[in-house]
């Protein structure tokens, strides 16, 4: 057993983050104070979106986005099977049905060719498809201009799952650089602030949008469906005989949830956001070093590279043809852990999960590109505090374990 363990992922917290949280804890408000608004304003400024709403997790952000979009019983979304469970699960919680469309083996994101074929097929079969949810897998943006055009063609809402992609940029056809989260080509964009993401608030999430109505609905739904703005009240007669509503008065207009984010979490998010570009820069350096170390290392296939735009480098996923080279993937993972290298897989295709097979009738073989990718996929450690020496150790250990020579790329 190795003395030193290299984790698959970890947060980057320094003294300025700790001080920011401590200051917030010393303030009058632990929740629903001014720091929440400051964090939301900073997120809007960073992404270029008009509005940002923070909440308790990325999963909560997805749920709120689906609810704000009006998804409910009889509606459906289309998304990728190569994603975390929350992407489709939150649609089910909102009352909608998730459908999947296969990935492009080259980008590992939704295949837009297949998507354009599958949407009319679902509509022809009587499915009330209301939204498409692209996932920017590993921090590599989907071609949002093309996806937006497909959605417009079929009258669909677009909700970006950018939980991997805060800080990523995609290039428009006119040469413009578009920040993921600007929601330029979508109705809403969802982020996660889990500890392994671009920045962290412990747990936390956010939705950005340029639509004022969606913004207001997101805020109401985040806090029990309660409205406190006098201009929005419906039944002021129950509050007072006065013509002016009393200061305690509020109304619940629809069923909401408590998905609020605390002020001390927002304080951490504000502090982290100032470091985001540095975090992404370091992730990019690690990714480039991995590329160099694996350059002459067949049969290992490195991750896809963006032709246009900038990745947030949330994941570094290699693919290894385990069956072809006669290596048992599970035994190999366990051996790597024994050598001190902790790895991960992103993701088990969602349609193969027992719940989805038993509830919706999905079967192995339904989405072959995602299933083939899963058999080969290995996520390597990548986070800002990972050292070059640790990256070299990871690559060398992988190559040695697979019998790949030479061990030097010189």
SSE layout:
Elements: H1 15-25, H2 34-47, E1 51-55, H3 58-68, E2 75-79, H4 86-93, E3 97-100, H5 112-124, E4 128-133, H6 144-154, E5 157-161, E6 169-171, E7 177-179, E8 188-192, E9 205-209, H7 212-222, E10 226-227, E11 251-252, H8 263-273, H9 276-293, E12 316-319, H10 322-325, H11 329-338, H12 354-360, H13 368-376, E13 377-380, H14 388-401
Parallel strand pairs: 2-3, 2-4, 4-5, 5-8
Antiparallel strand pairs: 1-9, 6-7, 8-9, 10-11, 12-13
Low-confidence stretches at least 5 residues in length (pLDDT < 50)?
Answer: none
Please give the number of β-strands: 13
CATH architecture of the largest domain: 3-Layer(aba) Sandwich
Encode the helix/strand succession as letters: HHEHEHEHEHEEEEEHEEHHEHHHHEH
- Structural class of the helix and strand makeup? alpha/beta
Provide the number of structural domains. 2
Mean pLDDT: 94
How does the overall form come out from the CA principal axes?
globular
**Main β-sheet description:** 7 strands, mixed
* CA(first)-CA(last) distance: 30 Å
Rg: 23 Å
- The helix count comes to 14
State the strand order across the main sheet: 1-9-8-5-4-2-3
- Which CATH class of the largest domain applies here? Alpha Beta
Strand content: 5-15%
CATH H-level superfamily title of the largest domain: Type I PLP-dependent aspartate aminotransferase-like (Major domain)
